[in-house]
Amino acid sequence: MNDAAPHSTDLISQLLTGMRIQGVHYRRIQTGPTFGLGFPSKPGHAYFHYVAVGNALLRGADGSQHLLSAGDVVLVPRGDGHALLSGEDQSIQYLETLDAAPLGDAVSGIDTCPSTHAVPSAVLFHGCMAFDLGGMQGLSKLMPSVMLADGNAAQFPGLLPMIDAMKREVCSGRIGFAGILARLADAVAAMIVRDWVERGCEGASGLVMAMRDPRLSLSLLALHQDPGRDWTVEALAAESNISRSVFADRFQAVIGTAPLRYVTELRMQLASQWLTQQSLPIEVVAERLGYASQAAFSRAYKRVMGDSPGATRRGRGLAAL
């Protein structure tokens, strides 16, 4: 984004700082010449695939197909159901039904290569990641169902050294390779998302247009830096150096929601992240976000998120079991 104003770049950096990608589990997969691996829909998560050796066909739940070859990296950012196949007519086995041998922390190995084959036809590295965009959560529905970086990483030049490192680790089996692969996968996934945002989200509208708007980006940056401030439309307009009425109309036209509704939704997205990922007490979250009482915060949270803050915390605890 070389043509972006400095405050627009600051805003994008601020939003990306709130992004969290954390691996839930990873699999190093070796297959024979035929295979069909299924991955169920998993909202709130992202799927990551790296093809180290061989080829695969990725088929989405909508029937879309993507041919993958050695060196390709795929991110499925919304956790949509899909399959990796050796051919269009191949039957599918869901990954969790296959035997896996532990290789390291949260990393396992799956080997479906027949004993009659000395060398596997395909070697893959797969990850399932908890994916939270924080203040950018509104962008998740704008993301493509599949984000592909090919083996040459032409559209993602910064990825090439990391993809090369992944291939070395996948194929070498050196001490500690499983943990290194997991960290590389997290970093590569984050870089793919960052590049998508920096390239204007492939023409997506709304928040992305606001980030590029020389006026709106000023107020958005101030809001994201201090979400707990007692924000009013007048205060936001003052940050943008325009009148209240012009600001409100411009905000609604570009982002598609009223300014104070955006403030509330941002606060609740941050609250969810703080409750689930940082395990902050509800009263601390309420205070950080400028609510005079825990009860007022809880009412706002349930109205936006559909559940209470306590239920969100309990859900996190159950998910960790």
UniProtKB/TrEMBL annotation:
Originating organism? Stenotrophomonas chelatiphaga
Top-level taxon of the source organism? Bacteria
Name of a matching Pfam family = HTH_18
Name used for this protein in its record: AraC family transcriptional regulator
Gene Ontology MF term list: DNA-binding transcription factor activity; sequence-specific DNA binding
Ranges of residues in domain HTH araC/xylS-type: 217-315
Q: Which UniProt keywords apply?
A: DNA-binding, Transcription, Transcription regulation
Which InterPro entries does this UniProt record tie to the protein?
AraC_lig, AraC_XylS_family_regulators, Homeodomain-like_sf, HTH_AraC, HTH_AraC-typ_CS, RmlC-like_jellyroll, RmlC_Cupin_sf
